[in-house]
């Protein structure tokens, strides 16, 4: 598998010419890179006006590998070819490098670019990409990959330190400015002071390990080779071009708002973000949100991409992005839901308190239903994301999760009511799938004897990484050392837990039975929730077809729609026509071209056309059977510039089009 790396944008707050002067001091050898043994100029070309300089250099590295592996390979040094193109007029340096040693067994390629910052011409940007493809290596492919990834991860931080070291050295020597290139000065070297010249004055890159990467991307601690190897995924190598903060991530921004990431973690974030920008036709999630999904899958980009796309589809279907503006908690929740936000913990994380033992879960489920409770919990999670963003700005450090304190005093067998547990499990499932890595710590206090029963029921549905964040205290153990005072400031411990801070979380109590829903309300709950979302619904009388027409403008679209039948069964057909379909008459079924059920196969889509007609009707042979969702996704090439028409003759047929 080809391993990839994409760096963030490293910004040096120094002019391009000064950074190049510092860069020159790394050659022909650099004492800050012990493994960099030597470099020889193989070829050099300079344009007539002196604005462009091309240098090809052969570099030798003493790779830190087991001696046995070196003896098996039969080499002491690993050689790389580096080609540098310096354009003084455009103020850019493009670097390409590849391995010469074992080139038939291992393919290594790197591209780097120094350029002027698009918004400040006195700053310099740096980016790099790299790829590693180990085809065969005497049976030690996995070992070689781990060695390469380990040394590469550590080299990135060192590369940044090297440039800063030489910039400081220049400053100590009194050199704070290098004039820009001009046609009249083309005969001069890049840096006019002779103290800057070396035995090899031309520019070149220094590969820092067995992956020939110019060690200058962004700082980040080295990490275990096995984990680093798992972080790199097979993905397209991005072209290195000067970018703007809007379309590329800056390394300082990552450190300020996302935290300390290793270079390979940064690479996964950048590549997944770029993939979304190129393929996702909708609202791109925030960087913090993307990072949560990567962390939830240990930075396996393929797995993170899969669950993130599923979550984005779910958010669109349920209009979750607008939940805080559109959702208003019913009065029964405001009075009897014993949960609420309460200041923050010692790490600056928002603190949510839930007095589960005082909550009438049975009463809330019977009064509101499972869906309303789920929406309320989703609004809590959305509010938590918003509070994390606010606390990040307030405390000046990345805060991406919150702390939850659950008080179980009063928990009894009433809380194990089966529909209530079922609702809880569904809520956990939805939150785990769409809000990963949002829980920083869960403090469970005053756990009673019945708690192990509840824990046995819900723990299988909780991710293992999430379970590790649980801290459980029985009785009054939370009051001593190692308890609440280790995680929450004493001044904000709620009064019902022995603290001095008044907590505005409702005390709960039994929900009056007069607030319970009637049997008819329970039966119609699903329909009401469907109509609140982006789906369209319709009740159709027999013989009165219903059609929905959707225009597909983008030829590369993938069309997806859902059918959900409340009562009875449906059958539908799909047809193609190059002409616009006529509105069907309502006095006869024959006008709709309804034939047999066999016509519902996808083979009817083999001939491309501009129009697609979907005709659905009731199957009278089993009208009482409940049909559920039928999702159809068709190839984008077959539905270019198409319309979808859905026709139903079922009096109880509800159609939902996404």
UniProtKB/TrEMBL annotation:
InterPro entries found in the cross-reference section: CRAL-TRIO_dom, CRAL-TRIO_dom_sf, CRAL/TRIO_N_dom, CRAL/TRIO_N_dom_sf, GOLD_dom_sf, PRELI/MSF1_dom, SEC14/CRAL-TRIO_domain
Cellular component annotations (GO), alphabetically ordered: cytosol
GO biological process: negative regulation of RIG-I signaling pathway
Regions of compositional bias (Basic and acidic residues) in chain numbering: 216-227
Biased segments, Low complexity type: 182-198
Matches recorded under PROSITE patterns: CRAL_TRIO (PS50191), PRELI_MSF1 (PS50904)
SMART domains per the UniProt record, alphabetical: CRAL_TRIO_N (SM01100), SEC14 (SM00516)
Region Disordered: start-end pairs: 181-232
Domain CRAL-TRIO: 329-505
Domain PRELI/MSF1: 3-175
Pfam families: CRAL_TRIO (PF00650), CRAL_TRIO_N (PF03765), PRELI (PF04707)
A GO term, aspect molecular function: RIG-I binding
Listed Gene3D superfamilies: CRAL-TRIO lipid binding domain
UniProt xrefs under PANTHER family: SEC14 RELATED PROTEIN (PTHR23324), SEC14-LIKE PROTEIN 1 (PTHR23324:SF51)
Name listed for the protein in its UniProt record: SEC14 like lipid binding 1
Native source organism of the sequence: Maylandia zebra
